[in-house]
Amino acid sequence: MKNEGAVSPLRIGTRDSKLALWQAEHVAGLIGELPGSPPVQLVRIKTTGDLILDAPLSKVEGKGFFTKEIERALLDGSVDIAVHSLKDLETKLPDGLILPAILEREDPRDVLIAPPGTSVETLPADAVVGTSSLRRKALLAHWRSDLHIRDLRGNVPTRIQKYLDGEYDALILAAAGVKRLGMDEHIANFLAPERLYPAVSQGAVAVQIRDGDETTGLWITPLDHIPTRLATMAERSLLSTLEGGCQVPVGALATTDAGDLALSAAICSLDGSMVVHGAESGPEGNCEEIGRALAEDLLSRGGADILQGIREHQGE
Questions:
Q1: What pLDDT shows up at residue 194?
Q2: 122: Cβ–Cβ under 8 A, 6 or more apart, which residues?
Q3: How many of the other CB atoms lie within 10 Å of CB of 264?
Q4: At what angle do helices 226-242 and 287-298 cross, to 10 degrees?
Q5: Spans of the chain below 50 pLDDT
Q6: Which residues contact 86 (CB under 8 A, 6 or more apart)?
């Protein structure tokens, strides 16, 4: 039996959104299932991304909008654990921080929030579709250039409420967030990854601690899901090689099966006029090499020109 009065709680740093809190509480619950586990305390932290609500993040300088304040709290000892959506984490972690656990991935696909029975193909011309992602905007423009794609900010419930209020004819969101919050009834369609490639690491939750904190690591390492780690390592290796981030329209998805890993990915121009996509596979132990190889292949087949055009457009 735990003696909570004698044991310091593990402090989990998290954003204050409903989805972030769900993820942090899920991690807390998993820790609580371990024999002899300590008590857990959630510490809510406001991030830059939570405060900037009047502009698309693609037009704001910087990276790590939803993670850097939490990582700073972890580094200064204000919290012991940070829980993130892995897709929000930069591919290079700050010095002094590690990821001892990546939880089993939820559905990595995007979904269409629309009236029942609606698909992307059956949306009327000029339908207003809301999304916050350059990746989604670009790939959707490639798929249906006749749609009117409009920026959408806010947490998942806020976005869905805007759709219900008639501000948008449809939305595109990550399946994982919608399902975790129990809002599945609004999903009209799951979007095939080969048509709308997911964000790198979409659906995966990462648990971050200080490097060298072996005591905390004892409680976090058992939560690691190896197939998810290998798949997301391949995707993040690809993104790192492309020198991209959440502000670049790159999508990827890796899967593992019987010791093998298959990775597919795409780079799309902002207006959707050009897409370069490809696939690579090999032993799952070579996940990072597979990611790098596919990135180099995409770059050599026109991806480098697309990314250069995007950087010039963004004023880099």
A1: 93
A2: none
A3: 20
A4: 30
A5: 1-5, 52-53, 55, 57-63, 246
A6: 102, 201, 204, 205, 206, 232, 236
With b for 16 or more beta-carbon neighbours within 10 A and e for fewer, the 128-137 pattern comes to bbbbbbbbbb
CA distance 256 to 259: 7
Contacts of 147 by beta carbon, 8 Å cutoff, 6+ apart = 123, 125, 126, 127, 128, 129, 140, 141
Residue 290 to residue 236: CA distance in whole angstroms: 11
pTM of the model: 0.90
Q: Comparing C-alpha atoms, which of 312, 286, 294 is closest to residue 251?
A: 294
Give the pLDDT score at 158: 95
Report the distance separating Cα 265 and Cα 278, nearest Å. Answer: 6
Given 54, 76, 88, 257, the catalytic residue: 88
On whether the CB atoms of residues 263 and 253 are closer than 8 A, the answer is: yes
Q: Any idea how long the chain is? A: 316
Q: How many C-beta neighbours within 10 Å does residue 294 have?
A: 26
SS3 295: helix
Q: Is 88 one of the annotated active-site residues of the chain?
A: yes
Among 71, 100, 93, 96, CA closest to 13: 71
Query: How many other CB atoms are found less than 10 A from the CB of residue 223?
Result: 19
3-class secondary structure, 315: coil
